[in-house]
Amino acid sequence: MSGPILAGALLALPGLAAAQELRGYAVTGDAIAKSLTGAPGDPARGRTTLLNRQSTCILCHNGPFPEEKFQGDLAPNLVGSGSRWSEGQLRLRLVDASRLNEATIMPSYYRVDGLHRVGPAWRGKPILSAEQIEDIVAYLVTLRE
Amino acid sequence: MRLAGLIVLSALFAVDAASAEIPQAERRSGYSFMAPDTRAMQDDDTINPGMLWVLDGEKLWARKSGVTNKACADCHQDARASMKGVAAHYPAIDKALGRPVDLEQRINLCRTTHQQATPLPYESRELLALTAFVAQQSRGAAIEPGNDPQLAPFVAKGRELFMQRQGQLNLGCTNCHDENWDKRLAGSAITQGHPTGYPLYRLEWQSLGSLQRRLRACMTGIRAQAYDYGAPELVELELYLMSRARGMPLEAPAIRP
Q1: Per-block average pLDDT, block size 10, for chain A (145 residues)?
Q2: Can you list the domains of chain B with their CATH numbers?
Q3: CB contact under 8 A, B166 and A127
């Protein structure tokens, strides 16, 4: 019963991984200075993506989102993110926060290696796409105190 | 040399602090994180929906089954006496298998070995009912995994799994349930993850469910591949959680949001 399904999943995997190849980026200090896509993100779309539960941001963070009843408090409030961090610093913190603090509970949103037992639906895929990360970065820099 | 020693020491300390268990005096059941009306539902057997499964389980206990045409009651007699405190000691080592089995597996081993009946599927109404009926006989009993030295390596494996980061979100159980149990995830209390009330009725499920169901849901939540029902890893995790909750009273069948 599970044989053909498993075989199908295995066959599908290499294609999936190839389709999801990540773009390269350069880390300078504690920042990624250049946009992952080569283009600036869209802050309005970034806000929408950030509030989407599938993006997972507000499961842990809270922020200036009065319309959202259920936000987390495991992680810092996002108010003033744009005053505390530069665009490049925010980008690295989204892409791979574990580079700055190995013990952080912040997932690496643009990393597929070094992970353990990722479920088939998510295997080989980053949590967010390069475009989504650029949109969120563009939104976060507008959060100034 | 002394500096190197200090570095090693502080590194050890850092590892220790990150994975420290919750001190005995600070341990709290999931019950204490619930709203008053949800607590009231658990406290009153006439409105606790879990009791419907217990009542079914009581009937199943007396029902003859399998090739041998025996009921649980034919060997174990009155569960109120024979099953008192039993659930508080599970998972426990099965001598024939040489590894721990949880309460559901014990019930199914009894079925296949002594009743010569087919094992009941995980999460089936019948298996949950029998488990709930047996577990209810330990209500108020202190959780006490046996001191069987054979258990120790399995507890250690369960603890390793509890600490292991996994899934696309790269989180371990410990990151929430040791380190952040006083916080809220998307508005919901995180809790300390003590398995004091299983099988329990989850409002979200609109059903009774096992600890393995809960563990699998958490694994899917961190986008990891959940272990199959009955997998040794899940039993080891159950065992570690019970040893971590040592001394806490059993509440089965509990209610959780």
Answers
A1: 38 44 95 98 98 97 96 97 98 98 97 97 97 98 95
A2: 29-257 (1.10.760.10)
A3: no
